[in-house]
Amino acid sequence: MLDDNGDVKPPFRLVNLGSQPLKSYEPLPATSVPLEFRRSPLLCSSYYAWLSPLNNPSAVLDLPRHFHNVRLHHIIRDKPIKDDDLKVQEAVRSQWRHRVEKSGDDPQSQIARMFKFQAKRIRNAKHKKHSIVDVQLILSAFLYSCYWGMPTSVVTADIDVLELGSEFMRVVLEKYIITQYLQQTLLLRSPREQDKIRQHGGEVTLTVPVADLVTRLNAAFVSSHRDPQATFVALRFYDIGSGRRVYQKFPTPDYLRRFIIEYKNLECYSLHPGIEARYPYRWSVDATNAPETVDLTVSLANYPFSRGLVPWCEGQCRYVQHEREHPELLSDFRIP
Of 210, 205, 207, whose CA–CA distance to 177 is shortest? Predict the structure, then answer.
């Protein structure tokens, strides 16, 4: 990966998120070194659209992960969890512990990795230790792969990176099918009904059966793995001491590539108006247990928000400020 001088060897490339880069609508040059993602308003907004969902996702269709992230959300904010919620969480976790026991303590077991990863995050949260470096690494790899449509590999000696990759793909697929559901449901409403939403605080709550969304999620998962033209992100773990290797591959077909790059559940000063209008709804989930149904708080986007290209928009961007000052609070849950 590195030559004798410590420089990156081809075909590997150095990717840099960029520090206060000057924004431009020009496509990022494939030969630039380092590649500064945040120079492009399209990729910069994608980075911030997925940063919170990956750091503390509201993955309501994956109960073990959802309950873990609900607990993490409360611990970081020093908020108590209701006794009834704790009982539900423990019941689900006990069911999954049986699967861990069957799989053994093999680091290659995804279930075992998930529980170890979660225990580590809870422990760090209780001790006020937090880092988003691994989150930024995974997010950069997927954005790179999706933007250029190129297979991308991440070589790591940190097994936690594999669990983050799994979590990111689950988050992407869940947001994709929920967004599709909302578009099919809400776009059937007349402009008159949309005006009513605006007049009543600009929000509407939809209660959706989890079973319906899980069916859609499973179909999307199967579709993504059957597409022979899909590019992919590969995570390769190597344990230097034991020589153990673990490999995971995450296919990203064209429709998911476009969704990862174009989905914007935020407001961006410099985003091109044509991209801004593609997803007119904003939605969020409360940090509560919801094993049978999920309540989606949906609002109409503040459109148009974009002001055209603002070259130094990071100086006034609340997402940039939040990442730099309070990264531990980055969360996908609705915060009243």
Answer: 210
Q: Which two tokens stand for residue 250?
A: 């995450």
Helices (H), the chain: 41-55, 63-76, 83-103, 110-126, 133-148, 160-186, 191-199, 210-226, 254-262, 273-276, 318-325
User: Mean pLDDT by 10-residue block, N- to C-terminus, for the chain (336 residues)?
Assistant: 64 64 74 70 91 89 82 88 72 66 58 82 90 90 89 87 90 90 72 69 79 84 79 87 85 91 88 78 73 79 78 87 91 77
Unique residue bearing structure tokens 């209780």: 126
Q: How far is CA 23 from CA 13, 47, 89, 144, in A?
A: 21, 14, 44, 18
User: For residues 76 and 328, what is the distance between their CA atoms, to the nearest angstrom?
Assistant: 7
**Distance from C-alpha of 273 to C-alpha of 304, rounded to nearest angstrom:** 7
pTM: 0.85
Two tokens at 112? 């075992």
Q: DSSP 3-state helix, strand, coil percentages of the chain (rounded to 5)?
A: 50, 15, 35
Write b or e for each residue in 27-45: b if 16 or more Cβ atoms lie within 10 A of its Cβ, otherwise e. Answer: ebeeeeeebbbbbbbbbbb
C-beta separation of 224 from 173 below 8 A = yes
Residue type, 305: F
Question: What contacts 267, CB < 8 A, 6 or more positions away?
Answer: 301, 302, 305
CA-to-CA distance for 75 and 79, rounded, in angstroms? 6
